[in-house]
Design brief:
3-stranded parallel beta sheet; 341 residues; Rossmann fold; phosphoprotein; phosphorelay response regulator activity; hydrolase; chemotaxis
Length: 341
């Protein structure tokens, strides 16, 4: 890791700590722009250290996680505690792709260095009501299976998606989500969300009928697309090459929504590094979809929303805590005849 970071012309390793106790002192001495933090460390659990750090000295943290089920679950918790993003430890066979791995780490550190870090505030979540203090829900439940919500996110997106989904009513339109995340982590992410939300959240397997009150998350190994089977919307997986350096790619999902849903889709682009999703969201808009973007003030990284706004793909821009109500209000006033009052 030190060699990778040190090889970048715009980065410098100012300290290396073998455990959190040493890290605590080094942080005071060196005041780093970004901290890379191993999930598993001696002398103190990585999560305990992260929680204390984000409470006492908030700073951009990039987690380094193992490609295991336990590693993915710990990483999900780390993102909830305030970590900006994570990278996985390389497999033994990474040598052939070492440059790609180096570029990935460097890009994530650059993004983390620009991230907006806010002091962590305790949030009480009720599985039946969502987070305490949320905006009131739209009074009209939505039961139309024709309308769809299509979401794309990257850096900072796991928490943004959670905050969006916990405000969705149990009979909201079907939701398809692409979050840049490696294979294995998407399953843990979906499982965690399913326990917090009123809707059902699952990792897409491909071929599922898209149902109201359900959210389908792109698995880390494949692009997620929307397709049709007769009169029904269904999910489709594609293991084709990365798009915008990502698989799953937000552009791939958005383009499929433009093709098969058109004006029945509502697009939402959330915090993220890079430009993935901008062109696909513009195609959605041109096909009749109505699109929302998270504003700069509430994004961890404003890259993806900024690019979508720049190309003219969005209709409305707003803070994260208002987007669920904005989307539901739009659907309540532009829903199909299946809308129940």
């Amino acid at each position: 890791m030190s060699e990778i970071i040190g090889s970048q012309p715009d980065m410098e390793v100012v300290g290396v700590a073998p455990d959190p106790l040493v890290a605590r002192d080094l942080i005071k001495q060196t005041n780093p722009d970004v901290l890379t933090l191993d999930v598993e460390m001696p002398k103190m659990d990585g999560l305990d250290f992260l929680e204390k750090l984000m409470r006492l000295r908030p700073m951009p943290v990039l987690m380094v996680s193992s490609l295991t089920e336990r590693g993915s679950e710990i990483t999900m918790r780390a993102l909830e505690l305030g970590a900006v993003d994570f990278v996985t430890k390389p497999k033994l066979s990474i040598k052939s792709g070492m440059q790609e791995y180096t570029d990935l780490i460097a890009d994530k550190i650059r993004a983390a260095s620009k991230a907006r870090i806010k002091p962590r505030m305790a949030q009480v979540v009720d599985a039946n009501k969502g987070p305490v203090g949320e905006l009131p829900m739209v009074r009209n439940p939505l039961t139309s299976s024709e309308k769809l919500i299509i979401i794309g996110a990257s850096t900072g997106g796991t928490e943004a998606i959670k905050n969006f989904l916990v405000q969705m009513p149990s009979d909201c339109p079907g939701i398809l989500i692409t979050q840049h995340m490696p294979e294995g982590f998407t399953r843990s992410f979906a499982k965690r969300l399913d326990g917090l939300c009123k809707i059902s959240v699952m990792e897409a397997a491909g071929g599922e009928r898209v149902l109201p009150g359900h959210a389908y998350i792109a698995p880390g190994h494949s692009h997620l697309l929307l397709a049709r089977s007769g009169a029904n919307y269904v999910t489709k997986l594609d293991d084709g090459p990365p798009v915008n350096r990502h698989r799953p790619s937000v552009d791939v999902l958005f383009r499929s929504a433009a093709t098969f849903a058109g004006k029945n889709a509502v697009g939402v682009i959330l915090t993220g590094m890079g430009k993935d999703g901008a062109v696909g969201m513009l195609e959605m808009k041109n096909a009749g979809a109505y699109n929302f973007a998270q504003d700069e003030a509430t994004c961890v990284v404003f890259g993806m929303p900024r690019e979508a706004i720049a190309v003219g793909a969005t209709h409305e821009v707003g803070p994260l805590n208002e987007l669920p109500s904005k989307v539901l209000n739009y659907l309540a006033t532009h829903g199909s005849r299946a809308l129940r009052v």
